[in-house]
Specification:
The protein has 292 residues and is α/β, with parallel strands linked by helices. It has helices at residues 3-15, 18-24, 29-43, 59-83, 97-114, 127-135, 181-185, 197-208, 222-230, 244-249, 278-290, and strands at 48-50, 55-57, 90-95, 119-124, 141-144, 153-167, 189-192, 217-219, 235-239, 253-255, 263-271. It folds into 3 domains: 3-83, Arc Repressor Mutant, subunit A (Orthogonal Bundle); 90-158 and 266-290, D-Maltodextrin-Binding Protein, domain 2 (3-Layer(aba) Sandwich); 161-264, D-Maltodextrin-Binding Protein, domain 2 (3-Layer(aba) Sandwich), CATH 3.40.190.10. The strands form 2 sheets. Strands 3, 4, 5, 6, 7, 8, 9, 10 and 11 form a 9-stranded mixed β-sheet that branches. β1 and β2 form a beta hairpin. α1 (3-15) crosses α2 (18-24), α1 crosses α3 and α1 (3-15) packs across α4 (59-83).
Length: 292
C-alpha cells in the first residue's frame, strides 16, 4: 500500500463519487478507478459495492476507513512537525459560546505566551455541531459544558460551576423573594438551545417537579440571552460566571428558587485514537492546570 492510495481512498469516501474525487485531486476518473483497484488488489478484498450510478462503501471498506483516517492524520502530523519546518503546527479547538467567552480566552492567552509558533484555530458552535466535527476530525478537541457519551470519545472534566436564574432588576419577579419552581416555569424563560448540556440540566430540573416549559427564547448564544434578560424580556438560566460583570454592575439580579440549585461541568473532549502532538498535550495540560 502507498500513501497516495490511502489518500485517494479517503477522498473517494468523503466525496462519495469517483468523479468528484477526481476533480478534487486534479486527476482523471480512470486514474482514480485504477488506484482504488490496485488498493483492493493489494488488500485482497473489495472496499466498495459498485452500482450503475455510484459506488458505496461496504462493510470491509468502512472498517478499512476507520483505520486509514488516524493513520493519515499521524502521517500529516509527522510531516508537518519533522519534514517541513516552514509550516507551523496548527491546533484546532472547538468550543461552545459559553466556554469560549470564559475558560478558553484565559487558556489561549497563556498558551500563546509559551507556544507562539503554534497556529490556533478556534471554532465556536453548538455541542451537537462540535461533536460532528470531532467525529469527522475537523477539530482536535472540544471545550463544552458537556457532550454525549460516545465510545469514540475521551471526556475529561475540567470545572464545575453553578447555574444562575437571572433577570433585570426592573423585572416584576426581581423583588418577590424566594420563588418556587412552578412560579419560575410560568415566566418567559430565556434558555439555551435544545440538546445543549445546560438546557438538559434545566429541563431535567423542571421535570423533577413534574413541569415542562416552553421558553420564550432559545439561543446558542449566551450573550444574546443575557442581553434579552437585561432588556427585561424574561428570565435567563445560565452559568453564573457569564453574568458576574452584570451582577456586579447591577444590570442583572439573581433570583433565588427553592430547591433549584443547579450546576454544570465543563469538559475537554477528544477522540480515543487522536494522535497527540506536543502542542495538543500542552494545551490540554494548561486547561487542567488553569482550573485547579
Amino acid at each position: 500500500m502507498k500513501i497516495k492510495q490511502l489518500y485517494t481512498f479517503k477522498t473517494v469516501c468523503e466525496e462519495e463519487s469517483i468523479t468528484k474525487a477526481a476533480e478534487r485531486l486534479s486527476t482523471t476518473q480512470p486514474a482514480i478507478s485504477r488506484t482504488i483497484s490496485e488498493l483492493e488488489e493489494a488488500l485482497g478484498t473489495q472496499l466498495f459495492d459498485r452500482t450503475a450510478r455510484k459506488i458505496v462503501l461496504n462493510e470491509a471498506g468502512q472498517l478499512f476507513l476507520s483505520k486509514v483516517i488516524p493513520l493519515l492524520e499521524l502521517y500529516e502530523d509527522l510531516e508537518r512537525e519533522f519534514l517541513d519546518s516552514g509550516i507551523n503546527p496548527a491546533l484546532k479547538i472547538g468550543a461552545t459560546p459559553s466556554v469560549a467567552g470564559t475558560l478558553l480566552l484565559d487558556v489561549l492567552e497563556k498558551f500563546r505566551a509559551t507556544h507562539s509558533d503554534v497556529q490556533v484555530r478556534v471554532t465556536v458552535d453548538s455541542e451537537k455541531e462540535l461533536e460532528k466535527q470531532l467525529l469527522h476530525r475537523k477539530i482536535d478537541m472540544a471545550l463544552t459544558e458537556g457532550m454525549a457519551d460516545d465510545e469514540h470519545f475521551v471526556k475529561v472534566p475540567v470545572s464545575s460551576q453553578p447555574l444562575a436564574v437571572l433577570c433585570s432588576p426592573d423585572f416584576p419577579l426581581a423583588s418577590s423573594g424566594i420563588l418556587t419552581a412552578p412560579e419560575l416555569a410560568k415566566q418567559p424563560l430565556l434558555l439555551k438551545e435544545p440538546g445543549s448540556m445546560v438546557r438538559q440540566i434545566v429541563d431535567s430540573a423542571f421535570l423533577f417537579f413534574n413541569l415542562s416549559v416552553s421558553p420564550a427564547w432559545t439561543s446558542i448564544s449566551s450573550a444574546a440571552l443575557l442581553k434579552a434578560a437585561r432588556k427585561g424580556l424574561g428570565v435567563a438560566i445560565l452559568p453564573r460566571s457569564l453574568a458576574e460583570k452584570d451582577l456586579e454592575a447591577g444590570t442583572l439580579t439573581e433570583l433565588e428558587v427553592q430547591d433549584f440549585n443547579l450546576s454544570c461541568t465543563s469538559h475537554v473532549t477528544f477522540l480515543q485514537d487522536k494522535y497527540q502532538t506536543v502542542a495538543f498535550q500542552a494545551f490540554v495540560n494548561l486547561i487542567l492546570f488553569s482550573v485547579t
